[in-house]
Amino acid sequence: MKKEMDKVIVEVLGLLASEDSKGFARFFDKKHPAQVAEVLSEVSPMEAWSVLRYATRDLRAEIFSHLDLNFQIEIVISLGRDEVARLFSDLPPDDRTDLYKRLPEEVQDSILPAMAQGEREDIRRLSSYKEGTAGSVMTSDYATLTVDLTAAQAIEKLREIAPDRETIYYSYVVDESRRLLGYVSLRDLILAHRDSKVENLMHRNFVFARVNDDQEDAASKIQKYDLIALPVINGGDALVGIITHDDALDVISQEQTEDMEKLMAIGGSHEMVAYMKISPWQHFKNRVGWLIGLAILGLVSGAIVQGYETLLLQFAVLATFMPMLADTGGNTGSQSATLVVRALATKEISSEDLLRVLWREFLVALPLGAVLAVLAFARVYLFAPEMPEGSSLIVLGLAVGLALGAQVVTSTLFGALLPMGAAKLKLDPALVASPALTTVVDITGLLIYFTIAKSLLGL
Predict the structure, then answer these.
(1) Which of 226, 308, 373, 425 is the most exposed place for a label (fewest CB within 10 A)?
(2) What average pLDDT does the structure give for the chain?
(3) Under 8 Å CB-to-CB from 113, ≥6 apart: which residues?
(4) Confidence band (pLDDT; 50, 70, 90) for 283?
(5) Could you tell me the pTM of the whole model?
(6) 3-state DSSP call for residue 250?
(7) Structural domain containing residue 84
(8) Residue at 262 is within a domain
(9) Could you give the CA distance from residue 156 to residue 92 in angstroms, rounded to a whole number?
(10) Is the domain of 395 the same as that of 306?
(11) What is the spatial distance between Cα 412 and Cα 268, in angstroms, rounded to a whole number?
């Protein structure tokens, strides 16, 4: 795969060196815009833009939209104001707004005066919505109709505006105040009698999002109801934008990436940036904070072991089973936490279901703990360790088995309790589930183990 990519890069750089416009035309014709963007991301920003100059304006904007956002920023910063203004006017409203919001302030102030007034106002309006909301990911590029149009008139209008719209499969019916009344699909209009009124064709029961709704909730609606686009309305029920299915996929992927990184105690912005595009220093900053905090918290585990130092000196064989308890507790707790975090993310459960979830996990943990306790007892009894004089192998097996069984139950309950508790406190469940879970399980596991061992062994 890499050899193939290197070959294409050499081809592109050769076309650039020879200024072969016909060669570029053939290259663009046989490659999807996303494939072209993948190739250009491997060259310098200036080389990438030099290649894009050979594409038509529409194709250039489409290829540019597929580039990584940080790479887009590098290109824009290197261009002149007028060239950036032309590029911005060709980009879809949501893409150019995302790019604009991440540009340095001096670049923002430079390019806005060079743009048409309508485009300036559109950028200002779309960029005013808080990050993470439906308003921040919507586009103003949509089609509207009025109730008085016939099907034939509506189709004719869509034919006129289609080149400037991202999608026309759904057309949204609005009144004079732009209040959303319903929608019609292109299929509805084509199949209807030419004189049928839009008012009689439109769907009045529709799914929508409000501008301040969470972007993940809005994307979930598109996924749940199999929509191509989702209308976004403001507090006055006026249509202000739509979220398209491709943007919803980006949101879902971003949220999944964020949850996965938080589960693994990785900080940072959690943007969808290729691993190799992030510097080692940035990787370091994203990871070090949680690791330091957890390492400090891990000192508690050391203090517990130190507190039972006399017990370990008298019965050193106990130390050989500590890794098994820690690993098993971590594994069972992680299983529980993963399932609960996913259920919270998909809205299958909420923080109000805390007791129900804990009871369900307890019913799962009991047989799991029993099975693993039997295995631990068998491990001790069948592979008898060297015992201090006068001690009972069966009692040791019982101590290890009971401790492991109790560890499984408590770890499973903590795995459910931590994310549910975080949701109750309006925190991100993924942020505390895995990082905190491992340390908590280690601490509780050691306390359980040494308490049971000390009681049963009579030490």
Answers:
(1) 226
(2) 85
(3) none
(4) low
(5) 0.67
(6) helix
(7) 2-130
(8) no
(9) 23
(10) yes
(11) 29
> Which domain-ending residue is among 130, 153, 187?
130
**Long-range contacts of residues 121-130, Cβ cutoff 8 Å, at least 24 apart:** 122/93, 122/97, 123/88, 123/93, 123/96, 123/97, 126/93, 126/94, 126/97, 126/241, 127/97, 127/100, 127/101, 129/211, 129/212, 130/212
Nearest to 140 by CA among 204, 197, 97: 97
287 Cβ contact partners less than 8 Å away, ≥ 6 residues apart: 265, 266, 267
Q: Is the dihedral of CA 89, 90, 95, 99 positive or negative?
A: negative
Same domain for 226 and 108: no
pLDDT in tens, 297-335: 667 777 777 777 777 666 777 888 888 888 888 888 888
3-state class (DSSP) for residue 272: coil
425 and 344 assigned to the same domain: yes
Q: Are residues 91 and 150 in the same domain?
A: no
Total structural domains in the chain? Answer: 3
Residue 352 vs residue 3, higher pLDDT: 352
Answer yes or no: is 252 within a domain.
Answer: no
Is the same domain home to 318 and 451?
A: yes
Predicted local confidence at residue 265, as pLDDT: 58
Residue 387 has a pLDDT of: 66
Residue 180 is part of a domain; what is its CATH number?
A: 3.10.580.10
219 and 340 together in one domain:
no
Same domain, 222 and 340: no
pLDDT at 426: 78
Q: Is residue 258 part of a domain?
A: no
State the CATH number of the domain containing residue 313.
Answer: 1.10.357.20
Q: Rounded to an integer, what distance in angstroms lies between the CA atom of residue 209 and that of residue 231?
A: 6
Q: What is the pLDDT of residue 390?
A: 60
CA 385 – CA 393 distance, rounded (Å): 8
Q: Do 192 and 317 have their domain in common?
A: no
DSSP 185: E
- Choose among 342, 367, 344: nearest CA to 421: 344
Question: What is the DSSP code string of 187-199?
Answer: HHHHHS-TT-BHH
| 306 within a domain of the structure (yes/no) | yes
Q: Looking at 81-165, which runs of residues are DSSP E strands?
A: 143-145
Residue 40 sits in a domain whose CATH number is: 1.25.60.10
Beta strands in 221-322 (DSSP E): 229-233, 239-244
Give the Å distances, CA to CA, from 406 to 12, 328, 441.
Answer: 63, 11, 11
- pLDDT reported for residue 145: 94
